[in-house]
Each structure stands twice: as structure tokens, then as C-alpha cells.
Amino acid sequence: METLAKKANSSTYHFIRTFTKETGVTPYQYVMNTRIAAARFLLKASDASIKDIAFSTGFQSESSFCTCFKKIEQLTPSQYRKQID
């Protein structure tokens, strides 16, 4: 956040507040939504493992990816993949 705030010539607090006001989500939520959107695409378009998709979309572990995916999609990545088959 500090790096983005500096690029926007504002404080971290002001950057987060302005970003949230303009987009409707916090910068963190925006990043997570973007990562999950990429993961949804990979789950549909490839046979890559869940673990490989987790790391390729920027998550530090398969567990954190699955937790975030389920929170946003209300399905685990495996359930999502089965649903689209």
C-alpha cells in the first residue's frame, strides 16, 4: 500500500480511503477479487492442479487460496471445477 500511495502522491490512509470511495472495494479486496477471477479462468481453461493455480495467481499457499476462493465463490476450487464440467 505504501508504494501505491507514494505513486499517487498521498498518504497510505488517504490512498486507501480514496480507492475505496472510487471503486467500492478496498485495495486488498480488489487484489483478491482479481486473483480469484484469474483462478476461475484457469480452473475452466486448464488442467493445472489447484496448487499450481494457487501459486500462479499470487497466493502463498494452497490453503490460503482455497480459503479465499471459498469465501468469494461459496465453493471450493475443486467444487467449482466439477460444477463447470
Distance between the termini: 38 Å
The outline comes out as elongated
- Tell me, rounded to a whole number, the average pLDDT: 95
**Approximate strand percentage:** under 5%
Biggest pleated-sheet summary: none
Tell how many strands the DSSP assignment holds: 0
Q: Which residues form runs of ≥5 with pLDDT under 50?
A: none
Order of helices and strands: HHHHHH
Structure, described:
The chain is mostly helical and 85 residues long. The chain has helices at residues 2-7, 12-23, 27-45, 50-56, 62-73, 77-84. Helix 4 (50-56) packs across helix 5 (62-73). The protein starts with a helix and ends with a helix. 13% of the residues are buried. The mean pLDDT is 95.
Topology:
Layout: H1 2-7, H2 12-23, H3 27-45, H4 50-56, H5 62-73, H6 77-84
Put the structure in a nutshell.
With 85 residues, the protein is mainly α. It has helices at residues 2-7, 12-23, 27-45, 50-56, 62-73, 77-84. The N and C termini lie far apart (38 Å).
Key words describing this protein structure:
mainly alpha; 85 residues
